[in-house]
Every structure is written in structure tokens, then in C-alpha cells.
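ingest -> validate -> predict -> emit
validate: passed (alphabet ok, no gaps, 283 aa)
predict: started
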Amino acid sequence: MWPNYTHPVYGTSPWIAGGAAVGIGAALFVSRDDGPLWRRIAAGLILATCAYLGARALGELGVSGLAGVASFSWLRPSGQIRLSGAVVGVLVGMPICHATVLGNFRLLRTADVVAVGLAASEPIFRLGCFATGCCFGRVSHLVGSVTFPAGSPPWQRHVVLGLISPFAHASLPVYPLQLYFCALALLCLVAVLEMMRHRSHMPGLAALVFVAMHEWGKFWLETLREPAFPGDHSLRIPALIVATLATLALLATLAVHASATSDSRSRIARTSTRRPEQPAEGF
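emit:
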């Protein structure tokens, strides 16, 4: 049985701050050769702020609709968070960084660095979800399923559905979906770091791989989430759209790179096999 949910560790703020710190630290490490430290720290703080605001805005959109977003209630320090909104916030923050602190702004290189930051920070966020009990999975009796204590979101959901008594001490066993998302983020982080380890990698390719892997994984993992109502696909459909677009962009990038590499090798081969012209013999 877990402690009382009024303890600060069961709020979202410590986990958000911890995840942001880990993400900024990882981004600073992989970009250590990209310019002055103060510029990179400033850019990391700007992007982290934009990512948080984007995640809060999208979370409020899912709860209160456009009216909630227009009222700026998502600026409160607590509330629903959608991590996909963090990506939107980062896209908004990139031109801000370019106009303020990043003089030698390189979009594709920055996208790779941001992918590392997002992949490194998400496991902390997901552990926060596990601690607070949000983003929980469907009822499951498989090995590895977990129960949440009274007062937690799964417990409240099961009471509303009539699956347990209001006097029950814990929820029914559910999929630990938060930990599955955590494992997915770690897998994406390993893939991105492995790609960036090679200096010959194409700028921007690691970011595309991260988005494609993450969103396809999210699309399938969302089938294990407890739906807000029967037939709710509000989280799977956006993941499918983003995953499809990222996959198409990745395939197109690889095709262009393969074509350019083939042309370059052909030119080198023709140059190396061309015989030098013999001077004409004089009389």
C-alpha cells in the first residue's frame, strides 16, 4: 500500500522539474561541441518552457476544449498534461531560440539534440504518472499487473464503473501502462544516441527516427489504456497520424540520401577510371 496521496512526491510538479532537468542535461551533453555553454543553457530553458506550456495547453484542450485554452487556465501550475503537446511547444520554441540566443541556428542539428532531450526526460515524466496513478491501463490479471491504493485515479474509475466497492482498499489489477511508456522512451533514447554517436549520420535523421519509433509505439500501447468512454480513440488517432507522417518523411529522407550517395560514388568511379590523354607526338 502506498503512502497518502497528499505527500508532495505524488504531485506532478517534482517529476516535471526532474524530467526537465534530465532532458536539458542530456541535450547539453550531446551538444557540447555546438557553441558556448550559456547559449545552450538558455536555449534549453526556452525549449523546456515552451514544451511545458504546449503540454499543458494540449491537456487543457482535451479536458475543457477550446474554451479552456482561450481562458488561459492551462497556465496554472497543475492540471492535465499531454506529452505530444511538448513536441508542438518545442517547434514553437525553435524560432524563438534562433531569434534570441542561437546565432548559428541549425534546424536539423537542433532537432536531433531536442530528440535526445525529449527521450531522456520522458521516463521521468512517466514515473511521475506511475506515482500519481494517472495514465493507467485496463484491468488485467496478467503477471506484472499492479493495483493502486484508495483515492488514486484507477481506484476512482473502478468505483464509478461499479467494479469495486467504495470501501475497497485498492483498485483492481491494471496494466502498468506508465512503465511501458517509460520503457518505450528509453528504447528511443538508446536508438537516437546510437545514431548520433556516428559523426557521419545525417542531421535530422535521428529526430525522425525518434518521432516514428515513439509514435508507433504509443499507437499500440494506447490500446492498453483505460478509455474515458467505450470506443474512445482520441489518443490513438493523433499518434497514428504523426507516426505515419514521420515514417513517410524518414523513408523519403533515406531515399534522397541513397540517391545522392549513389551519384557521388558513380562520379568517383568515372573519375578514377578515366585515362589521362596522351600528348600528340611531334615531328
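Residues 1-10 have pLDDT under 50 and may be disordered.
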